[in-house]
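Morning!

This is the sequence you dropped in the shared folder:
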Amino acid sequence: MLILQIYYSNNWETFTLNWMLGQDVRDSVVGFYGFGGIAQATAKRLSGFDIDSVLYTTRRRVSEEIEKEYNAKKVDFDTMLAQSDFVIIAAPLTKETAGVFNATAFGKMKKTAVLVNIARGGKMV
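The structure's back. Tokens below.
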């Protein structure tokens, strides 16, 4: 096992190589901001990793069949942020979605949460 020592905050910290691997998605809660086709395709791929559950927030609820297929539950934005180990942004940039992820939203997330942005941006001008 490779041990790495790093000078950090006036102290030598010892880390194993695993500290760079991040956290495992297995048994985690994955939250989606937007749950359209791209998000559903992502949730389908994540199902092979034995995730605990999928939370999503969107304007409209998806069908019960889709919720059952992905073990998904529609919740409000704050609940999705607070309970998710991974938050995936999968919504287009619009007037309604611009600025939603701000300091207040980040403050509601778990300290260990991972943010993944697969959203579409605005038009180039």
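Headline: Strands lie at 3-8, 11-16, 29-33, 53-57, 72-74, 86-89, 114-117.

More detail when I'm at my desk.
O.
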